[in-house]
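TASK: fixed-backbone design
INPUT:
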């Protein structure tokens, strides 16, 4: 899989472990609602490319990185009435 320069890839940390071509990607792990750190690590298993620590999550609130890593205009699917929070 390739991502173009200045591109992005949405991957759901759902624990569902789904890798079907043309479908949404899902990790084989999920994130704790109480908060934790999420790291993007190179294939060498040691080199950290990006790291993000988040706190307690709220029900029905989408959470994402600010526009330095994710375009604020990216389409987020959410339930009607749900809120979205973008962190700088």
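OUTPUT:
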């Amino acid at each position: 899989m390739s991502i173009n320069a200045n591109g992005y890839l949405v991957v759901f940390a759902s624990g569902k472990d789904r890798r079907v071509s043309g479908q949404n990607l899902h990790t084989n792990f999920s994130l704790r609602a109480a908060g934790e750190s999420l790291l993007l690590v190179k294939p060498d298993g040691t080199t950290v490319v990006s790291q993000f620590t988040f706190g307690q999550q709220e029900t029905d609130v989408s959470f994402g990185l600010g526009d330095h890593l994710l375009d604020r205009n990216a389409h987020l699917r959410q339930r009607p009435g749900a809120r979205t929070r973008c962190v700088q």
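COMMENT: The longest strand covers residues 48-54.
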